[in-house]
């Protein structure tokens, strides 16, 4: 008998990969998604319940119908630039939506919650590798919406019967190795899909945002973590909660940084293609370097990332060559 779990935002990029691993490990994913940025065809390892997380009655109805053991909450608006242009939508979706979901979870007797947070809650890094005790001073509305939900989760878990694992992802990247699902954001702003689309000739080229950073080659350093490693960590987080684990915030990154120029070299090597690259000015809001200290994930969840930056790029290349987003 499979164990039902509610995957809110499960038709999106990270949620759909997590459904695949959940299904492999004996869970029955119930995907709740309003499809504003998700894809119905990504719901391959569970049942789809279409609905908006801000719609209390609909959320309660789905919880009542499926009686999930835990909720994994991925649903959010995610693009930092858009959060500066339209903060109302971000607070509405990410904060009100999450608080609404938590209220419905408590009413429905679901006590275990896994929340998608981000390294963007740390703000400007004060050390080379960031551990979970790093100060949290987010520098944009997107990061602040995630930080606010983290605080609510900590309060609810102290004062109410809720246990939560807050997962702070670094840069999610890569795709299912069979190319069935992958990174499909619209508009796409992430470096890897943009560079791959340039290599495929679907874009005119790639613009490097800033070459004057204090890094080994002047471009920003990021910790790219394979989406399947993230998915694995989510299943471990559910297992941990069901086994009686306490509320914790946990980084998910590899601990290895890659510069934008190194990333482009890997994409050239994997694809065997050259593409135009232009060096342009910095993008507002970018940190010089964001690299995880992932010790806590190893200790609490037994999590070790399995995939390298080459694996990430190979799997992303495979997905993008098969899939041409309209
Ligand atoms: N992609 C990254 O690198 C990254 C990094 C750090 C954190 N995160 C977080 O991970 C989560 C998933 O990110 P993703 O890249 O898979 O994004 P995504 O846009 O692919 O997936 C989000 C899903 O949530 C759904 N959704 C949004 N608002 C909703 C609402 N009000 N009601 C119901 N469904 C709604 C969308 O339709 C979509 O399917 C987000 O919470 C994001 O903030 C992502
Ligand atoms: O066309 C591009 C796109 C990106 N970059 C650079 O590539 C690096 C990675 O950029 P991404 O946009 O892929 O990722 P971010 O580090 O900006 O974003 C990550 O962190 C954000 C918060 O800071 C959000 O959580 C987001 O979803 C997550 O992917 C950055 O240095 C960026 O400046 C370019 O040079 N050119």
TrEMBL record:
InterPro entries: NAD(P)-bd_dom, NAD(P)-bd_dom_sf, UDP_G4E. Belongs to the NAD(P)-dependent epimerase/dehydratase family. Its cofactor is NAD(+). The keyword Hydrolase does not apply. Keywords: Carbohydrate metabolism, Isomerase, NAD. One of its GO terms (molecular function) is UDP-glucose 4-epimerase activity. Residues 6-314 form the NAD(P)-binding domain. The gene is galE. Coiled coil: none annotated. This is UDP-glucose 4-epimerase. It comes from Rhizobium glycinendophyticum. Its EC number is 5.1.3.2. GO terms for biological process: galactose catabolic process via UDP-galactose, Leloir pathway. Homodimer. CDD domains: UDP_G4E_1_SDR_e (cd05247).
């Amino acid at each position: 008998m499979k164990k039902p779990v509610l995957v809110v935002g499960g038709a999106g990029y990270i949620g759909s990969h997590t459904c695949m691993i959940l299904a492999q490990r004996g869970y029955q994913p119930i995907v709740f998604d309003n499809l504003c940025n998700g894809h119905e065809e990504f719901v391959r390892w569970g049942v789809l319940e279409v609905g908006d997380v801000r719609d209390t009655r609909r959320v309660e109805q789905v919880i009542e119908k499926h009686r999930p053991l835990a909720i994994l909450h991925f649903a959010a608006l995610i693009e930092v630039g858009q959060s500066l242009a339209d903060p109302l939508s971000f607070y509405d979706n990410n904060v009100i939506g999450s608080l609404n979901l938590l209220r419905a979870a408590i009413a429905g007797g679901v006590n275990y919650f896994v929340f998608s947070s981000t390294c963007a809650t740390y703000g400007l890094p004060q050390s080379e590798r960031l551990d979970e005790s790093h100060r949290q001073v987010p520098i944009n509305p997107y990061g602040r919406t995630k930080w606010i939900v983290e605080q609510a989760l900590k309060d609810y878990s102290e004062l109410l019967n809720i246990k939560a694992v807050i997962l702070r992802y670094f840069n999610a990247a890569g795709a299912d190795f069979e190319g069935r699902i992958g990174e499909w954001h619209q508009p796409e702003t992430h470096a890897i899909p943009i560079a791959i689309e340039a290599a495929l000739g679907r874009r005119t080229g790639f613009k490097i945002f800033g070459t004057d950073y204090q890094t080994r080659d002047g471009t920003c350093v990021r910790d790219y973590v394979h989406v399947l490693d993230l998915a694995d960590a989510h299943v471990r987080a559910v297992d941990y909660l069901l086994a009686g684990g306490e509320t914790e915030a946990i980084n998910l990154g590899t601990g290895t940084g890659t510069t934008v120029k190194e990333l482009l070299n890997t994409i050239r090597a994997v694809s065997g293609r050259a593409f135009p690259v232009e060096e342009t000015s910095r993008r507002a809001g970018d940190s010089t370097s964001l690299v995880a200290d992932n010790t806590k994930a190893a200790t609490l969840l037994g999590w070790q990332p399995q995939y390298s930056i080459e694996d990430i790029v190979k799997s992303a290349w495979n997905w993008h060559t098969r899939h041409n987003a309209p």
